[in-house]
Backbone:
């Protein structure tokens, strides 16, 4: 007898250190019960300390990967992560408009927590114009939300309100705003903006240096749960639970000299 799994596609970039990017996506999708496949948009030379090189793949190779997958695999959900530049954003948006996957999570990756630039700043407009309108949900962290809205990065919880208002004005179907960058807060809140309502998902903050790849992991787990049929709020709650457990488990790991990965 055959059994099947929800096929979850990550369109993103590799992390040679194994903690973030496509490597984190595949681990998170597998651990949450999906079948992971991937379109590699770019390659990074990277470890737990820094990104030392980025190579954007040729457009025809990215297009060929997309066509190979969509012409054969019944993709249940797509997660888009680091794409690196405007040409790739346009190409991926064209493909998503043509293939229309049932669920689309867009992680608007721009800068790593170590400060490495992961999207050319001039490509932010393409991201806003081409990819955000296609997404069921976008998952910005606070600096990414600030960049998308033109507002300053909030320094405390009291500064979140205007950012939430500006994100609602972006006309995305849903936004999961991640509050993890508010390091001094005792809790780690995320806010789901959906159907004119704001729901806060609040978990205790785990104090650890091992948070490399947390954004990739959360957005992949979310795509995985959506692809397996969970409705948005339950998929967000489940993905938040998954990343919380992965961060807790990661506190016991010592991998590399810098910000180590979470444990899947
Ligand atoms: N490298 C790649 C390929 C990524 O996609 C990302 C985030 O999406 C990062 C690095 C940055 O991860 P972090 O900020 O969690 O270290």
Residues:
């Amino acid at each position: 007898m055959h059994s099947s799994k929800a096929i979850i596609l990550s369109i993103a970039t590799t992390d040679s250190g194994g903690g973030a990017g496509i490597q984190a996506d595949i681990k998170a999708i597998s651990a949450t019960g999906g079948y992971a496949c991937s379109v590699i948009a770019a390659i990074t030379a990277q470890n737990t300390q820094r990104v030392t090189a980025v190579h954007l793949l040729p457009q025809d190779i990215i297009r060929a990967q997309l066509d190979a997958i969509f012409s054969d695999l019944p993709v249940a959900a797509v997660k888009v992560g680091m794409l690196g530049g405007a040409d790739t954003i346009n190409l991926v948006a064209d493909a998503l408009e043509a293939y229309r996957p049932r669920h689309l999570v867009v992680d608007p990756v721009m800068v790593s927590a170590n400060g490495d630039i992961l999207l050319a700043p001039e490509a932010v407009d393409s991201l806003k114009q081409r990819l955000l309108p296609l997404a069921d949900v976008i998952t910005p962290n606070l600096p990414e939300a600030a960049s998308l809205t033109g507002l300053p990065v909030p320094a405390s919880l009291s500064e979140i309100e205007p950012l939430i208002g500006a994100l609602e004005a972006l006309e995305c179907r849903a936004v999961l705003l991640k509050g993890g960058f508010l390091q001094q807060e005792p809790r780690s809140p995320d806010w789901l903006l959906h159907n004119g309502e704001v729901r806060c998902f609040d978990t205790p903050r785990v104090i650890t240096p091992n948070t490399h790849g947390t954004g990739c992991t959360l957005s992949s787990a979310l795509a995985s749960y959506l692809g397996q049929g969970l409705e948005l709020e339950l998929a967000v709650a489940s993905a938040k639970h998954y990343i919380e457990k992965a961060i807790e488990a990661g506190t016991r790991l010592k991998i590399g000299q810098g910000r180590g990965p979470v444990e899947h």
